[in-house]
Each structure stands twice: as C-alpha cells, then as structure tokens.
Amino acid sequence: MSELTANLVNIVGAGPGDPELITVRGMHLLAAADVVIYAGSLVNPKLLDYCRPDCEIFDSAGMNLDEVIAVIKDRHAKGKRVVRLHTGDPSIYGAIREQMDILEAAGIPFRVTPGVSSFCAAAAALKKEYVLPEVSQTVILTRMEGRTPVPEAEDIRNLAKINATMIIFLSVHMIDELVNRLLVGYPADTPAAVVYKASWPEEKQVVGTLADIAQKVKNAKIGRTALVTVGRFLGDEYALSKLYDKGFSHGYRAAKPE
Question: Which helix or strand (DSSP H or E) is residue 195 part of?
C-alpha cells in the first residue's frame, strides 16, 4: 500500500471505540507509523496497541492546533510516517479541514482514511435502520449550539419540522433544552433513543419517547459522549423495501410473476 511507504501524513478515522472497528487500512497505517497524534479525549487508547513499541505517541487532548501542526511539520521533515488519528470518521465534527488547509499551504502531502462514525455504531447497537420505506428517507446529523455556534437556519427547532430521522451529537448534556426544541416539530410520542459510548465495553442505551427520554437519560447519569437519536425509524411500522420485492424488477433482476 503506497500510504505505508510514501512520505505522506495520514489522517485516519479510528472508528467509534471498539478497536476492531477501525478499517483494515487504518490498522495497517497505525502499525507502520513512526509518529501518531491521537485525540485522547475520545479515541480508545487500545487502538495504540496496533502501533510499534518504538512509535512516538502524542495525545492531542492537551495540545492546540499550532502544537499539533508543529509536530506534524517537524516529523514529516525528518521523513517520519505520521498518522493523525481522529475518533469515528474524521469528516464529522473532526475539525480536520483547518489541519488539511495548513498542510496543503505548507506543501505537505496527506491522505484521509475514513472511519466508522459513532452514528453508524449507534444504529448497530440499537439494531435499527435509519432509513425505512414510507417512514423516513432522510437522516439529519446535527448538534445544539454550545461554545461552538450553529447557523441560525440549522437550529434544531427548524430541523425538527421536517420529521426526518435525526441524530444529535455533542448535546446530551443539554437534554432538557434539546427535547424542548425537538417538540417544536416532532409529536411527543416520537420514539427517541440515547446511546452512550457506542461499541465500547461501557456502552449504555436508553430508549423512550420525547415525552420521557430526558428524565430517563438523567436517571442513567449520562451527561456526555452519547448520541441522541429521534424518529419513527425506532418504531416497528414500515413498508417492505422494493429492492428485494419479488414483484419489482430492476437492472439486476426481473420480476417474478405471481
């Protein structure tokens, strides 16, 4: 694999937590790395077991952007194979655009290896499918504003009016206000589920409706590192897919007569 031998900086998605849910490519990149800078506040440290004993490890939880970039530039200039390890898939709340822009401006080549996002792990944990025929064909990934603002048009009160499947990141600590905003668009009996640390050994699931999910979350003492999922996809009523309907033909299969 060229990523292992070329003098590239590799930005890698670590997956949702379980060390076995990193991609095969990501695992190989960690195994070949001379330097790994990982997001220690969220990435499972067991992923570092894939690294060589002599690999230089940096925890970026206590580093600012300038410090992270300084390490990357210095080690890359020395011909080291650098991996920047982000939680989940780095394209979702990974803050990698600013890093990529700096690397590009500096003429440092890089590649991105995607990862399994926590919202995918949450669906797997719940044994649910986010898009169901005649229920929802749209998935909204969003968050409440905190220290990082959200564009006004993307306020959850506006998004809730669509009644699509919604997965809310980084907001479980504001569960009461979140539910109040969701109720602007969703009925109170809309199913909701919160998954804490999906795929980790300490994973927790709280299932209810918008009428009771806030209290259930507080009873479970979940205050961070959890996704809030909302929508009728959590229910049991849906239409069967046309994809496998024997009476429905497509480019790979002719319909079978009754």
Answer: strand 191-196
Residue 154 token pair: 């993307």
> What is 2-113's CATH number, 3.40.640.10, 3.40.1010.10, 3.90.1750.10, 3.40.50.300?
3.40.1010.10
3-state secondary structure of 60: helix
Count the neighbouring beta carbons within 10 Å of the beta carbon of residue 34.
Answer: 16
Task: Give dist(CA 221, CA 99) in Å, integer.
Answer: 35
- The Cα–Cα gap between 206 and 234 comes to 12
Q: Does domain 118-234 have CATH number 3.40.50.720?
A: no
What confidence tens digit (pLDDT) does each residue in 182-200 have?
999 999 999 999 999 999 9
- Cβ–Cβ under 8 Å, residues 246 and 203: no
DSSP 223: -
